[in-house]
Structures are given as C-alpha cells and as structure tokens.
Amino acid sequence: MPQTDDLSEDRGRPTVEDTVLGELIGYRLKRAYMQIQPEAQRVLAEDDLRVVSFSCLSIIADNAGIVQSELADALQMERSNLVVIIDELEQRGLVTRKKVPTDRRRYALTATLRGRRLRDRAADKVRTAEDQIIGRLDDKDRAHLMAVLERLEAKTR
Amino acid sequence: MPQTDDLSEDRGRPTVEDTVLGELIGYRLKRAYMQIQPEAQRVLAEDDLRVVSFSCLSIIADNAGIVQSELADALQMERSNLVVIIDELEQRGLVTRKKVPTDRRRYALTATLRGRRLRDRAADKVRTAEDQIIGRLDDKDRAHLMAVLERLEAKTR
DNA sequence: AATAATAGTTATTGACTATAACTATTATCC
DNA sequence: GGATAATAGTTATAGTCAATAACTATTATT
After folding, report:
1. Do B33 and A33 lie within an 8 Å CB cutoff?
2. Which of A41, A46, B21, B118 is most buried (most C-beta within 10 Å)?
3. What whole-number distance in Å separates Cα of residue A107 and Cα of residue A90?
4. Do A145 and B145 touch (CB under 8 A)?
5. What whole-number distance in Å separates Cα of residue A116 and Cα of residue A81?
C-alpha cells in the first residue's frame, strides 16, 4: 500500500494536467534539448568555448579549407554571425584564415593542431556529459533516436 | 549506374564532413527542433500567439485555477517572464486572473471559453504543421520517438 | 564593358532569458 | 504572539542570440 492514496501528487509537487503540449513533437524536442544543452554549455565553457564556437571548430577540423559561407550553410547560421566567432577562434590560434588564391573573396579555414586537439578533448567531454543524462537509454533506443532525429532533419530538403 | 560517379556531391551542394557533431544528441535534437519550431511559430502567429503564449494558454486551459508560479514551474520558465504574457492573454479575454481568497498573494488563472476555443484551434494547426514535416515517420517511429524524448526529459528529476 | 551575384564584414535591431530588487502576504520559529 | 523566513507577483534591466540591412571587394554573367 502506498504512503498516500493520492497518486496525482508526488511528494508535494502537484501534477499539472496537459492534454495538448505533451503530444506535440516540437514541445518534446525542446524539453529534451533543454536537458542536454546547459550541460554541454557548462563543459564547453571550461575550455572557453560556446556551443556555437565548438560546432564551428568541429566542422572546420573535419573540413580543412572550408570557407565561411559553406560553414554557415552547414551549421544553418547567418554568415554575418560567423565572423566574430571565427575571429576569436583565429585569435586563440585554433584555426587559420588564409586567402584562396583562385577566389580572393574567400578565406580558407583550417584547424591548427591545437584546434584539433581542443576539438577532440571538448567532444569527449560533451559526449560524457550527454551520456550521464541519457544513461538510462539502452544502445538500441539511442540508435533509434538518432536515426529518427536525422530523418526529421532531412525532411525539408 | 548513377548519373555521376561522385557520390560526395549532390547536385552542386558539396557534402561537408562531420565526424563529431552528428553523433551528439544535443546537436541532433536542436536541428530536429529547428525544423519544427519555425512552422509552429508561423501558424500560431496567424492567431497572434507566440509559442510561449500558446504553451501558457494550453496549460491554463487544462488546469483551471492554476497560479502563476505553478505555471512557471510546469513550463520551466521564470515567473517574472510570465507576467507580461499573462497580461496579454488576459487583455485579449483568453484567460482570467482572480485573487485566491485563501492566499491573497496568488492569482488563479482560468481560460475563458474563447481561450479554450482558441487553444483547441491553434493546437490543431500546430499538429497539422508538425504532421507535414514528420509525415514520413510511420506511427511506430513517431510513438517511439515521443516515448524516448519523454524519458530524456524525466532524467534529471 | 556593364551588370549580377557572391564572400566577407560591420553595425544594428528585436526577441528572448535570466537576474536583482521591490511590495504584499503568508509561514516559521523562538 | 511577535520577529523572521519564505513565497507570489511584479518591475526593470542586462546579457545572449539570431536576423537584417548596408557596405566593400571580387568574380560571374550577359
């Protein structure tokens, strides 16, 4: 027999009814994301990285010579907002910007050794942080989740 | 035989390598969310609702008499940011605020008939918009996704 | 050669979130 | 029972972030 007959309450926190929001995928996605994001932000901040700068650094590390427009496309952000981020990564010696000889409008971005090492280290920390949150998901559920999310992304194009 | 031998390109859009981000759940969640959110925003704007005001209206409609602090808890937002949102819902005649006699610090929030009708209509539009994006997911994948997302949410508490 | 489009940049704006400080009211603890 | 804590709502403000427009330099188009 439970300690209380009233299952609508859980140790003083009354259950709030919800007939609509919980069935919306956007709502569920946002709330799940909000569980993960602050932790990712926190571990990245230890290396003075924001989530967005880590994302940039990571894509640059995987694509030596990528130019800013392509990076902006890949990360679905405005190229104007990229500028200061790349500025900072460059000043910290994590990436280099050099003119493309065949098209002098463009700058080729390349991660330095330091940049690649930081990326790898930061990625490990983010993975660890994520694993602590999603730990209870077994490998099958996790793989299924990732696959479905990837399909959701691909929907528009 | 494919039209082109080079599968790394898809009609002029070069594939960007990614060895790290795509394996991160936070990254995938955000990108999936970003597919849905603008559409939800768009259809709600037709009824002069923001996503957050729709969320408030919906929870109030499901919980007649809920007070602002409880609502803020349920939606994981700051109660200070709730004030102007409730102000507007009240001015539009969608919810009422009335003093709780037993605790005069609190205001009981209740959705009006108009508020409930608008909530129902807006929810239908959001569901329709979501269905167009996730249309290709079958019922099984959809149910699995929702269940896993719900478990992710519950992890911290 | 004239005109378009593209890449990068700068500056600015609006939206949203978080924080601190305040008032009124209720709960708590000697 | 009275001093002190905590809570609910509110206001104002500051920081973060994404979106936009305007500009220069360079390349592509016609």
Report:
1. yes
2. B118
3. 12
4. yes
5. 22
Q: A127 in contact with B at a CB cutoff of 8 Å? A: yes
Nearby residues of A73 by Cβ (< 8 Å), 6 or more positions away: B16
Residues of chain B with pLDDT under 50: 1-12, 157
pLDDT per residue as tens digits for the range A70-119: 999 999 999 999 999 999 999 999 999 999 999 999 999 999 999 999 99
- Report d(CA B22, CA A154) in Å as an integer: 13
Domains of chain B: 44-154 (1.10.10.10)
Nucleotide nearest to B66 (CA to C1'): D8
C-alpha distance from A35 to closest chain B C-alpha (Å): 6
Record: contact A59-B16, CB cut-off 8 A: yes
**pLDDT band of A12, cuts 50, 70, 90:** very low
How crowded is residue B43: how many other Cβ atoms within 10 Å of its Cβ? 18
Task: Give how far the C-alpha of residue A82 lies from the chain's centroid of Cα atoms, to the nearest Å.
Answer: 16
